[in-house]
Structure formats: structure tokens, C-alpha cells
């Protein structure tokens, strides 16, 4: 076929058994005008073939198979390295429904704005049709979608991050609900006049649009090839679109990890947890407990979907199939489980290349190799001023390769959740661990979650970036309505609701030193939480929540003084009064829709300090 001839239904070889899918695929092909349309079957053979083609084209670098079998390095455009929140839009009919935390455009306006960009955007390229499932095939909590993309890198990444291919398509029968996810890098190889240009290793466009149509269950992403902007099953579907679906249908789509912790007595607790970026979510998900007898198993590190089961409890799945983790800072001392997970079958993006064809990044080893090729392809030595790996360099790998993966991680209908954690990076005020007084109070903890910028040294409260439920960039509707949905779920779950705890691994002393060692020692905080759930420890009631008796925290073998321990659990009245003032301002910024129950929680915490 000549590049300028538009693709029509007759040219698209493998149509699906679902006319609604076919109709959409044909419509997209007519607008974007690719050279050919390929339906991804999700097989290993397909994966290997596409990867080999990309190596041939210089898009991927094959790593040394003896050091890193079946693994590849991609180097992105220097300006396409992260999610772009300023170009992310929620296109609900009413602006009010996007709320104050999202960029909004009316759906018709956005579609008009996108139309000229999409026209001919895939000229000269292959358009891939990637059916995928978010969750185990056939599960009660699982949802389905189809991503159309002109990026072969995205096809490979989707094969690692989702259950993609023909098997997923079987679950999209006529009349079933599925999400339309259209992605183009916005770099056609042929223009409207028929003139051609050479491809580049990482095609993208300076203009970017990451758009969501929650009422149509649809995503259109233009101009970026990077993870969160382009792997549309992840943030766009599993959080922004799914959060809106979950509100309508009575379930929850959350930015959470999912683990099981087994006690020395052999009791297993399922724990989900919301943590803002850069607070060690992946490390906690893959924790090697430092206390004998405890075991932690991994189910997910980024997204959790939860739905009440027939027994009234809240069941959770990890809708993803892989990890898209930040490489820098991941090392044998900080996260050995992640290091083992990425030994093979991994795509690395924007990490450094060693001279023997392996990968390296800051924090992988204490000492940097004497010579590297940096993430942009330039020579690098330890004397270089710039980092060898981009700070947001990533690994993409199947979750099944994780040595601590739980046998339950693919349980079709999920596992019942015992404990929900909320945690931020807080140098002051917030104790190591404490329990909420009720579900409503737990919602208050979630709604007021935030992380201090690490550079913020001033004042007792510091500069807080609010990240409610760790969902600030990912809630697909009005933030206050999302809080109301959490409150409503609690009412529905009643006494079967999980217990909610706040944790903070990042408290500092007056000299700015961390009071808690973190990482594998965090099991000590989780152990207290499980004891609190069992009722084998009595918490202390304070204005902010139910704190441990310091004597109930197991510090055996830890290098920590009584004074440091006391500081870890200190609840300074002045610091909290300042914090509560800021919370009030924050609620005002979210507006009139903030549920009365959360204002009431704020009033009660204040009243506790006034006593
Ligand atoms: C992403 O940027 O694609 C992503 C997964 O983001 P984060 O690590 O912040 O969740
Ligand atoms: Na990011
Ligand atoms: Mn995330």
C-alpha cells in the first residue's frame, strides 16, 4: 500500500469478533492514516520479533545476554522523560466534575482541538491494536480496554505491564464495556503533501495532550512515548478513568501498593497502602523484613482496585501485570528484591550503559563504574557533572519475575484487605505509625496526606505538597467527590471495613537526622498495626489518632535510644495547630463540596488539642 492511501476496513486483516471494537479501529485508522494495521496477539514470538526489529532500527539497544538476558535499553528524547501534568486533561461535560485539581476542557472542544493533530498522525507508520485486561482474565474486578498505538516500544511495554493480546480480546464481547485508548507519538513520516522524512529513535512531538473522557470511558494521548503518558492501561485507565468508573459502580481505584505480611505466628495480613511519589512505595512492596519470623509477599507496587465481595469485605487486585519502577536509588542495599526481579526480560529506559553492555544508575552500587555511556548516549565518567542515568529512568518488567511475588497475586477475584496505610514524607508532626479512630477519621488522614519537599528545612511544618490519598494527579473527577466516595464506601463496608493507619518513615530530629532506619525495619511498624487489629495491644488515644504505647514497638536489635523513640511518637501541640490551620486553608481551596464529615473530623482533632 502506498503511504498516502488511507487504510480502510478492507485493508485491516484481522478484525475482531466485536463489531464495536472493529468500528473504532477502522475509524481511528481512517483519521490517523497508518501504512498498515497490526493486531497484537500478545505472544512471546511477537514480542521477540518486534524487539529484534527495534534493535535493527536502532530504537532499542540489546543488552549483553550473558549479563542481562533478553533485556533492552531505550533512550528517550531528552524532552520526553516524565508524565506531563500540565498537559493532562479531564474532559468531563461539566467543569465542576473535573474539580479544582485537574485541567479541564469540554469534551467537544478537546475533540476539535485534537482532530487536526490526529489527522494523518500515523502516516508512514504501523498502527498496532493492543487489546488488554487490567486484572486477571475473567476476574470480577477486572476491566478491559484496547490501546491503539503507533509506538512499537509501547506494544512491548504493554506486553510486560498488562495482560495484552488475543486472550484479552475474548473478554470483550459485543455489548461489553471496554475502554478506548488511543495513543500516537505525533511524528508522522509522511506529510499531507506526500513528502517523507527519516524516523528517529524516539519519535514524539513538542505538543502533548494526555486527555481523558471519563463519561465516554475514553483516552486520547498525543505527542509522548513515555510511560505514564503512553502506556495507557496504567495511570490514564487504571487510575483516572477507573476512578470515575469506580465512583459510578461502587468500587475503588487507588494509587496503592498491595502486600501480604505473615507474622511469626503464621497469620497473614493483606495490606494496601497509598504513598505519594518518592516515598518508597516500591521498596515497601518488596520489603525483606529485618525481624525474624516475618514474611512480606508482593502483590503490587502502584495501583490497587478494590470491590466489596459477597461476604461484605473489601477485595483487592493489582490490575497490572508488571512494574514500571524508578531505577535510580534502587540497589542491592535498598531493594535487593527489585534487583533480582530485573535480572532478565527487562526493558530499561534512560539508564546508563556499561562498557560491557549492562545497565547502571545512581544508587545501584556504592561506587560508579569508571566509564559509562549516559542516558543520552554520551561518554560519562565519575567526574562528569551530570547524572549517568536520568533521575526518572525506569525499568519495565513482569511482576511474575519478582522473587517475593505472592501466590495470590493473580487470584481472579482478589484478596480481602485487612489494613490500609497512608504515608508521606514528613520530617515533623507525623508519628511512625498510628491508627485512625474510625473510617471517617481514616478518610481525613487520606484527604490531608502530603509530602514535604526534601529541601524544605524551614518552620515546624515545612512546605507540604498535598497529595490526598496519593491521588492528586490521578483522580479523574472532582477531588471532594472522590473523598465523598471514600466516605460512602466506609458506610457500605461497615464493621467489615479494613482498619486504617498512618505511617511515616521520614521523621527527623532537631538536627535533621532521620529518627528511623526505614526499609526492612518498617516491618516493626506494620507488626504493631497487626497487633492493634488483633487487639493484643492497647493504643493510646491522642487528638490525632490512636498511637502505640512506645513499649509495644519491638526495637530489639535496633540502634535507637529511648529519647529518639519518644521523638518518633511525639505529637507537638504547636506543630499540629499550625498544621490544622493549613488543613483548613487546604479544604477551602478544594471548595464547597468538601464533605461535612471531613470538616467535622478537622473540628474534632482541633477540639482534642484544645482540651
Ligand atoms: C509514570 O510516570 O509513568 C509513573 C508510573 O509515575 P509514578 O512513578 O510517579 O507513579
Ligand atoms: Na513520573
Ligand atoms: Mn505511581
From TrEMBL:
<feature type="binding site">
    <location>
        <position position="394"/>
    </location>
    <ligand>
        <name>GTP</name>
    </ligand>
</feature>
<protein>
    <recommendedName>
        <fullName>Phosphoenolpyruvate carboxykinase [GTP]</fullName>
        <ecNumber>4.1.1.32</ecNumber>
    </recommendedName>
</protein>
<comment type="function">
    <text>Catalyzes the conversion of oxaloacetate (OAA) to phosphoenolpyruvate (PEP), the rate-limiting step in the metabolic pathway that produces glucose from lactate and other precursors derived from the citric acid cycle.</text>
</comment>
<dbReference type="InterPro" id="IPR013035">
    <property type="entry name" value="PEP_carboxykinase_C"/>
</dbReference>
<keyword id="KW-0547">Nucleotide-binding</keyword>
<dbReference type="InterPro" id="IPR008210">
    <property type="entry name" value="PEP_carboxykinase_N"/>
</dbReference>
<dbReference type="Pfam" id="PF17297">
    <property type="entry name" value="PEPCK_N"/>
</dbReference>
<dbReference type="Pfam" id="PF00821">
    <property type="entry name" value="PEPCK_GTP"/>
</dbReference>
<keyword id="KW-0456">Lyase</keyword>
<dbReference type="InterPro" id="IPR035078">
    <property type="entry name" value="PEP_carboxykinase_GTP_N"/>
</dbReference>
<dbReference type="InterPro" id="IPR035077">
    <property type="entry name" value="PEP_carboxykinase_GTP_C"/>
</dbReference>
<keyword id="KW-0342">GTP-binding</keyword>
<feature type="domain" description="Phosphoenolpyruvate carboxykinase GTP-utilising N-terminal">
    <location>
        <begin position="23"/>
        <end position="247"/>
    </location>
</feature>
<dbReference type="InterPro" id="IPR008209">
    <property type="entry name" value="PEP_carboxykinase_GTP"/>
</dbReference>
<feature type="domain" description="Phosphoenolpyruvate carboxykinase C-terminal P-loop">
    <location>
        <begin position="251"/>
        <end position="606"/>
    </location>
</feature>
<feature type="binding site">
    <location>
        <position position="255"/>
    </location>
    <ligand>
        <name>Mn(2+)</name>
    </ligand>
</feature>
<feature type="binding site">
    <location>
        <position position="277"/>
    </location>
    <ligand>
        <name>substrate</name>
    </ligand>
</feature>
<feature type="binding site">
    <location>
        <position position="235"/>
    </location>
    <ligand>
        <name>Mn(2+)</name>
    </ligand>
</feature>
<dbReference type="GO" id="GO:0004613">
    <property type="term" value="F:phosphoenolpyruvate carboxykinase (GTP) activity"/>
</dbReference>
<feature type="binding site">
    <location>
        <position position="425"/>
    </location>
    <ligand>
        <name>GTP</name>
    </ligand>
</feature>
<keyword id="KW-0210">Decarboxylase</keyword>
<keyword id="KW-0312">Gluconeogenesis</keyword>
<feature type="binding site">
    <location>
        <begin position="392"/>
        <end position="394"/>
    </location>
    <ligand>
        <name>substrate</name>
    </ligand>
</feature>
<comment type="similarity">
    <text>Belongs to the phosphoenolpyruvate carboxykinase [GTP] family.</text>
</comment>
<feature type="binding site">
    <location>
        <begin position="226"/>
        <end position="228"/>
    </location>
    <ligand>
        <name>substrate</name>
    </ligand>
</feature>
<comment type="subunit">
    <text>Monomer.</text>
</comment>
<keyword id="KW-0464">Manganese</keyword>
<feature type="binding site">
    <location>
        <position position="302"/>
    </location>
    <ligand>
        <name>Mn(2+)</name>
    </ligand>
</feature>
<keyword id="KW-0479">Metal-binding</keyword>
<feature type="binding site">
    <location>
        <position position="83"/>
    </location>
    <ligand>
        <name>substrate</name>
    </ligand>
</feature>
<keyword id="KW-0963">Cytoplasm</keyword>
<feature type="binding site">
    <location>
        <begin position="519"/>
        <end position="522"/>
    </location>
    <ligand>
        <name>GTP</name>
    </ligand>
</feature>
<comment type="pathway">
    <text>Carbohydrate biosynthesis; gluconeogenesis.</text>
</comment>
Amino acid at each position: 500500500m502506498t503511504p498516502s492511501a488511507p487504510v480502510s476496513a478492507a485493508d485491516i486483516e484481522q478484525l475482531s469478533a466485536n463489531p464495536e471494537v472493529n468500528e473504532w479501529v477502522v475509524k481511528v485508522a481512517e483519521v490517523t492514516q497508518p501504512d498498515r494495521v497490526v493486531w497484537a496477539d500478545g505472544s512471546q514470538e511477537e514480542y521477540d520479533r518486534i524487539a529484534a526489529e527495534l534493535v535493527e532500527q536502532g530504537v532499542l539497544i540489546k543488552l549483553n545476554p550473558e549479563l542481562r538476558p533478553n533485556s533492552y535499553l531505550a533512550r528517550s528524547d531528552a524532552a520526553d522523560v516524565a508524565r506531563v501534568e500540565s498537559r493532562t486533561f479531564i474532559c468531563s461535560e461539566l467543569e465542576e466534575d473535573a474539580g479544582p485539581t485537574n485541567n479541564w476542557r469540554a469534551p467537544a472542544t478537546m475533540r476539535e482541538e485534537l482532530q487536526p493533530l490526529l489527522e494523518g498522525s500515523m502516516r508512514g507508520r504501523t498502527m498496532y491494536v493492543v487489546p488488554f485486561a487490567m486484572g486477571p482474565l475473567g476476574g470480577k474486578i477486572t476491566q478491559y480496554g484496547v490501546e491503539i498505538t503507533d509506538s512499537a516500544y509501547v506494544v512491548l511495554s504493554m506486553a510486560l505491564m498488562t495482560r495484552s493480546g488475543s486472550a484479552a480480546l475474548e473478554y470483550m464481547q459485543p455489548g461489553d464495556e471496554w475502554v478506548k485508548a488511543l495513543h500516537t507519538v505525533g511524528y508522522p513520516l509522511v506529510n499531507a503533501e506526500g513528502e517523507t522524512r527519516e524516523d528517529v529513535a524516539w519519535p514524539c512531538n513538542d505538543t502533548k495532550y494526555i486527555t481523558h473522557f471519563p463519561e465516554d470511558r475514553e483516552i486520547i494521548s498525543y505527542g509522548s512515548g513515555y510511560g505514564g503518558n503512553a502506556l495507557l492501561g496504567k495511570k490514564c485507565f487504571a487510575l483516572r478513568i477507573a476512578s470515575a468508573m469506580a465512583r459510578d459502580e461502587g468500587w475503588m481505584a487507588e494509587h496503592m501498593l498491595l502486600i501480604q505480611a505473615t507474622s511469626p505466628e503464621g497469620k497473614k495480613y493483606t495490606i494496601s497502602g497509598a504513598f505519594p511519589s518518592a516515598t518508597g512505595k516500591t521498596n515497601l512492596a518488596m520489603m525483606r523484613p529485618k525481624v525474624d519470623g516475618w514474611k512480606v509477599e508482593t502483590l503490587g507496587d502502584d495501583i490497587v482496585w478494590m470491590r466489596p465481595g459477597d461476604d461484605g469485605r473489601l477485595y483487592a487486585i493489582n490490575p497490572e501485570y508488571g512494574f514500571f519502577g524508578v531505577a535510580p536509588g534502587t540497589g542491592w542495599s535498598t531493594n535487593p528484591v527489585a534487583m533480582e526481579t530485573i535480572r532478565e526480560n527487562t526493558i530499561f529506559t534512560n539508564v546508563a550503559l556499561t562498557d560491557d553492555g549492562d545497565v547502571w544508575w545512581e544508587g545501584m552500587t556504592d561506587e560508579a563504574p569508571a566509564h559509562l555511556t549516559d542516558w543520552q548516549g554520551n561518554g560519562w565518567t565519575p567526574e562528569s557533572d551530570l547524572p549517568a542515568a536520568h533521575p526518572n529512568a525506569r525499568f519495565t518488567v513482569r511482576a511474575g519475575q519478582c522473587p517475593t511475588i505472592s501466590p495470590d497475586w493473580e487470584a481472579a477475584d482478589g484478596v480481602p484487605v485487612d489494613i490500609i496505610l497512608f504515608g508521606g514524607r514528613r520530617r515533623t508532626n507525623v508519628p511512625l505509625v498510628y491508627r485512625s479512630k474510625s473510617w471517617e477519621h481514616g478518610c481525613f488522614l487520606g484527604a490531608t496526606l502530603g509530602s514535604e519537599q526534601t529541601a524544605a528545612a524551614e518552620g515546624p511544618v515545612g512546605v507540604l505538597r498535598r497529595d490526598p490519598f496519593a491521588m492528586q494527579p490521578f483522580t479523574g473527577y472532582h477531588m471532594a467527590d472522590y473523598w465523598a466516595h471514600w466516605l460512602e464506601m466506609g458506610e457500605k463496608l461497615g464493621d467489615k471495613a479494613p482498619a486504617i493507619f498512618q505511617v511515616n518513615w521520614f521523621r527527623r530530629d532537631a538536627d535533621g537526622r532521620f529518627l528511623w532506619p526505614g526499609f526492612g525495619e518498617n516491618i516493626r511498624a506494620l507488626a504493631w498495626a497487626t497487633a492493634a487489629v488483633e487487639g493484643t495491644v492497647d493504643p493510646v488515644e491522642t487528638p490525632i489518632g490512636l498511637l502505640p504505647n512506645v513499649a509495644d514497638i519491638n526495637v530489639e536489635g535496633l540502634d535507637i535510644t529511648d529519647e529518639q523513640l519518644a521523638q518518633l511518637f511525639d505529637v507537638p501541640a504547636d506543630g499540629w495547630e499550625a498544621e490544622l490551620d493549613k488543613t483548613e486553608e487546604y479544604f477551602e481551596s478544594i471548595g464547597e463540596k468538601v464533605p461535612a464529615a471531613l470538616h467535622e473530623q478537622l473540628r474534632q482533632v482541633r477540639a482534642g488539642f484544645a482540651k
